Amino acid sequence: MGAPEVWFPNLGIEIHELDTVAFELFGRTVYWYGFLICIGVILAAQIAIFEIWHRGESEDDYLNVGVVGLIVSVIFSRLYYVIFSWDYYKNNLDKIFAIREGGLAVYGGVIGAILTAYIWTRMKKRSFLELMDIFIPGFPIAQAIGRWGNFFNREAFGGYSNGLFAMRYIADQAKSVSEELMDKAIYARGATYIQVHPTFLYECIWNVCVFIVLMIFRHKKKFEGQLTAMYLIGYGCGRIWIEGLRTDQLLVGSTNIAASQVLSGILIVIGILLFYFGLKKIKIKKSLNITEKS
């Protein structure tokens, strides 16, 4: 048997052909990366629509913010990636808009979506946190699905691992292979492999767990913004850990500090503050009710 293109040696899983192309549509090539992101977005939108129906509202009221939010999210995803990869793009300006080649940062999309929601609620005089709680549960499941695009692209993996989920890529097919990984390269079945942490899989599993927790609490929350706070803390904690394993981190300037870890820390703090002020608001309301009754 020939050399598998992807190999999970400790799980006994071998994949002999892994194509980045999903299918052809009207003469255009559709890549798994973009296709999976679209599937994730559609599923997230459907989850939001179910919540809107549950509230007895019409989804038409939210259609505009959803469409605009999606467009802004894609723009911010690319902008975030380009900013923190500027050493490359400053000499390849023509590549800035080559989104089909990959290069969308999850956090950029999250920032774009939140900014769109904030501006829309200010214009419509609606509750920002209420709107966020409607859309937030779909975020982690969309991210979980989208991460598989990294798998097909053979990118966004971690450092060397020989754990249960250790994954092998053929070295010359993978993106951004470090010297350290090549120093630990494995020659097997006529091919040279790097053996790494499948961080796409770790984040997928983590996001699915965050999604399940949000779905459990979405109709049990005690204050507006609780689901948003839970997402910021849950996703932020997982991303700090997983980002530390990756070998292709987007760094802050000329430092060795991962931009996504810094942002994750900020989001965790914001989530904790949302919890604090949300619970404090409940406590104040209870105090006022007791005073009025007495």
Please explain how this structure is put together.
This protein has 294 residues and is an alpha+beta fold. It has one domain (6-293). Helices cover 58% and strands 10% of the residues. The protein has eleven helices and seven strands. The chain has helices at residues 32-54, 60-83, 86-89, 106-124, 128-135, 138-146, 148-153, 179-183, 199-217, 226-243, 259-293, and strands at residues 6-8, 13-15, 21-25, 28-31, 167-170, 186-188, 191-196. The strands form two sheets. It has a five-stranded antiparallel beta sheet with strand order 2-1-5-7-6, with no helix packed on it. A hairpin with a 2-residue loop joins strand 6 and strand 7 (191-196). The longest helix has 35 residues, at 259-293. The termini are far apart. The model has no long low-confidence stretch (mean pLDDT 91).
Number of helices: 11
- Counted beta strands: 7
Low-confidence segments? none
In terms of structural class, how would the helical and strand content be classed? alpha+beta
Shape: globular
Our measurement of the CA-to-CA distance between the termini, rounded to an integer number of angstroms, reads: 82 Å
Count of individual domains: 1
Q: What is the averaged pLDDT score?
A: 91
Strand count, sense and barrel status of the largest sheet are:
5 strands, antiparallel
State the strand order across the main sheet: 2-1-5-7-6
- The helix content, as a percent range, equals 55-70%
From N to C, what is the helix and strand string? EEEEHHHHHHHEHEEHHH
Work out the radius of gyration. Answer: 21 Å
Which quaternary structure do these chains form?
single chain
Beta content comes to 5-15%
